[in-house]
Amino acid sequence: MSDRTLPPQKKMTGMFGHPVAENPIDRMFDAVYAHYGLNWQFWKCDIRSADELPAAIRGAAALGFSGFCITVPYKIAAIPNLDDVDEDVRIIGAANYVTFDGGRMIGHNNDGKGVVKAIEKVTPIAGRRVAMLGAGGAGRAMAVEIARAGAAQMTLITRRESQGTEVADRVTRATGVPGAWMAWKGDVTIPEGTDILLNATHLGSAPELEPVPMDWSSIAPGTTVVDVITNPRITPLLETALGRGCKVVDGVEMLVQLAMQIFEAWTGIAPDEAVFQKAVAAALAE
Q1: Model confidence pLDDT, tens digit, residues 244-257
Q2: Which residues fall within 8 angstroms of residue 272, CB to CB, at 6 or more apart?
């Protein structure tokens, strides 16, 4: 028998969603793991239907994953397959990452916390009027956390009334901040006096780069425009906003902020933000 000491087994983490090909999160996490000398790896898993999601989640537990992220369109559908969820998930109604505690899978949500940190690097949220396009799993988390950060009012602009009114009501119940729904019909006209506009939809993502249909005459030059899309970093929405003199917040900055929190929850290491910024820039070949 050989006396050679075998290396420790690589710890696995990952992300479940569909589609996931354009997301740089795996390259970012792997670079950060390497920086901190961790024998960890991040697997980006394309789960093609909600019917396959329960098996994928059970598989993560069976394979010994140390944690995983959940992205569109499964942030709500994943919850019944977990052993427990934290208070944020109970309030928001969606989960975006999972930790393991004694073999039990615990759902968490820091989507909104990441976007709040990213926005507040550019403009304060307290006292501002906010409009959001979309109200899916990420959007509902952002709406609640932005309201918690002191927004004066939150308008949800969606094509489905039931979705928009449900999230608007959730914002009001959870935070006391007035939430309202507005129908998305044709080119979006945002409410007068809006200070911060967020796109929480897939519109603008690679490879299609489908623009968000906007009535740009309703957007004042002083508006801060925020996009959740990570690839490309400057989406068609943000490119137009920059051209009109708006401040912008890109989805990569949000990804960095929430990924730092997830990394610490999984590893117990408080990371240096510069390490994550360098890793994501390399992943995007910037």
Answers
A1: 999 999 999 999 99
A2: none
Residues designated catalytic: 75
How much is the pTM?
0.89
CATH level 3 topology of 112-249: Rossmann fold (3.40.50)
Q: Which residues contact 120 (CB under 8 A, 6 or more apart)?
A: 149
The answer to whether the CB of 110 falls within 8 A of the CB of 98 is no
Report domain extents, the chain. Answer: 11-109+255-283, 112-249
CATH class for the domain made up of 11-109+255-283: alpha beta
DSSP 87-152: HHHHHHS---EEEEETTEEEEE--HHHHHHHHHHTTS--TT-EEEEE--SHHHHHHHHHHHHTT-S
* Structure tokens belonging to residue 250: 């890109």
Contact 198, 142 (CB under 8 A): yes
